[in-house]
């Protein structure tokens, strides 16, 4: 399994970096892990011209490259940080530009890709950020994997064993589902889509 971790933090040696290290240690020898730090990419804000209803967004930044990396992965773990009771502005811009400017006109190419969410922040608002990203995962028709409790890391703690355990169990379930989905050869047949595409009007 190839896992890509989308990291929202701008800090090189903060809690998010520790979480990425935990992911690498836990999956060592069982999966490949690529951490993609949004701070390393130019992500412009959406200009709301609605021209991307049927074609890729025309803004010239690095979002298309991020989308290509996501498409190569078997699973995606979203790792936002919390600012002012919500996700930080860079991660918000990422969600908006990727989903609205690329995944929508391409008819949700991340459909059926495995996804999980972990959140880093102080002791307030974790679940609000978690819920926001979960809704984005569902919007893009991905398969959400969890461990029963959200992996929400409190930056005021030197160690957060409960969050660490929730994350380890989430990673194990990602692997479990990946193997279940791939234990039978597809023989080139397109996977059955249980739900028809729903097209909503813009207004």
Question: How would you describe this structure to a colleague?
Answer:
This protein is α/β, with parallel strands linked by helices. It has 5 helices and 8 strands. Helix 1 (15-27) packs across helix 5 and helix 2 crosses helix 3 (89-103). It is globular and about 45 Å long.
Oligomer: single chain
Q: What's the helical proportion of residues?
A: 25-40%
Rg from alpha-carbon coordinates = 17 Å
Global morphology: globular
Mean pLDDT: 88
Q: Give the low-confidence spans.
A: none
| Strand/helix succession | EHEHEEEHEHEEH
By helix and strand content, what is the structural category? Answer: alpha/beta
Please report the number of helical segments. 5
Annotation, overall tally of beta strands: 8
Main sheet: strands, sense, barrel: 6 strands, parallel
Strand content: 15-25%
End-to-end Cα distance: 40 Å
Domain NADPH-dependent FMN reductase-like: 1-149
Pfam family, one: FMN_red
Protein name: Flavodoxin family protein
Keywords: Flavoprotein, FMN
């Amino acid at each position: 399994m190839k896992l890509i971790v989308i990291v929202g933090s701008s800090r090189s040696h903060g809690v998010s970096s520790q979480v990425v290290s935990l992911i690498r240690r836990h999956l060592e020898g069982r999966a490949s892990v690529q951490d993609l730090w949004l701070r390393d990419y130019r992500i412009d804000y959406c200009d709301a011209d609605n021209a991307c209803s049927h074609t890729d967004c025309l803004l010239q930044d690095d979002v298309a490259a991020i989308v290509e990396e996501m498409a190569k992965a078997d699973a995606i773990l979203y790792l936002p940080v919390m600012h002012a009771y919500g996700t930080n502005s860079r991660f918000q811009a990422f969600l908006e530009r990727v989903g609205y400017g690329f995944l929508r006109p391409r008819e949700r190419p991340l459909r059926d890709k495995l996804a999980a969410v972990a959140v880093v922040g102080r002791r307030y608002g974790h679940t609000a950020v978690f819920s926001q990203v979960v809704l984005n995962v569902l919007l893009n028709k991905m398969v959400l994997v969890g461990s029963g409790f959200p992996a929400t890391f409190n930056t005021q703690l030197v160690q957060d064993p409960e969050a660490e355990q929730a994350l380890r169990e989430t990673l194990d379930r990602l692997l479990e589902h990946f193997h279940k989905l791939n234990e039978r050869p597809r023989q080139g047949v397109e996977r059955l889509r249980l739900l028809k595409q729903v097209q909503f009007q813009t207004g």
